Amino acid sequence: MSDIERIVERGAGALQAVPPPSTLPPDEPEKAGLSPSRVVALDGLAEHASGSVSLYELADLFETTCCACGAEDLPTYCSACPMLDLINRVLARVARR
Known about the structure:
The protein is an all-alpha fold. It has 5 helices and no strands. The radius of gyration is 16 Å and the shape is globular. The protein has 2 domains: about 1-50, no CATH class; about 50-95. The chain has helices at about 5-10, 35-45, 55-70, 75-80, 80-95.
């Protein structure tokens, strides 16, 4: 079975999940085209913009979220994960400070 087939098989239930309700007013064009779940997440980040998370906490969240996807035995898939790119961007930003 190919990596892609295994990933699709593991994630098939996610397509059945009900996305959280969006708080997006219809007149916010900068968020047009975003999924309702992404809009809710972005709104949550904006609401807590003055807060902070340590790199230790981020590493813990990354590890638990990363391992929860079920693809830890698929290195090709893992290397293309956008979460890995996010972590690398955070580390690059910290290094520039």
